[in-house]
Predict the structure.
Amino acid sequence: MFSISLRADRLSKTYGAGLLSAGKCIFQNVSFEIRPGKTFGLMGPSGEGKSTLGRVIAGLEKPTAGTVYYNGSRLFELKKTEHTAFRRRVQIMFQDPTDAFNPAKKIGHSVSEVLELLRIPKVKHASKTEEMLIIAGLPEEVLSHYPSQLSGGQLQRLALARILLLDPEYIILDEPTSALDVSVQAQILHMLKKVQAERDTGYLLISHDESVVRFMSDSCGVLENGQLKLID
Ligand code: ADP
Ligand code: MG
């Protein structure tokens, strides 16, 4: 059935299977759907496979069994150009924003690098940079700062603003606030909600924190003992 969504259909993942070993089953038969403008929350204790599931649905790893459907098409059967488009339209935001920026380069330099990578014409770099700073709620001065001179919250806002340059349809948010002080967690969650309302972005929100998932999600599930249990 065709639908505009990013959908996990009976996904299983086993690591280390070989001739002499059955391997380690991380999860089995996991199905859920992320729709535009909606959030699916994925909870569960640490080590239960949430990040692995996020990487599979983002196309960074193949499942052992099952299928990922991207807007109705099987992800691992997309043609090369379609797959390239997918890689742009489905983004991951990670837990630790300090990993998202090269510590040896000034913020302005990292931003220009991304704009070049996206083949945005030089004449538009200044306006795109400004747009990014407005989304992140940061002053122009940060461009001449190194990542270590910014707070975790500022860096995470900038990381999200940079992801938005790609105009993603879906974002996998892997513990997006877990590395941040409680005081700035809410700020990031509100920013994510605002972005979603404005752009109709679909989110997979991975978090071990039930209150975060409840606040953000339209539907959710718990990944535990290799099974996803949907919750209403
Ligand atoms: P979570 O995000 O819920 O904390 P992860 O997805 O990071 O869980 O990890 C789930 C399990 O998969 C862990 O036991 C981890 O050691 C194992 N794992 C993750 N990646 C690999 C890999 N590339 N090879 C083997 N085992 C892995
Ligand atoms: Mg994880």
Notes: DSSP finds seven helices and ten strands in the chain. The mean pLDDT is 95. The first helix runs from residue 50 to 57. The CA atoms of residues 6 and 64 lie 18 Å apart.
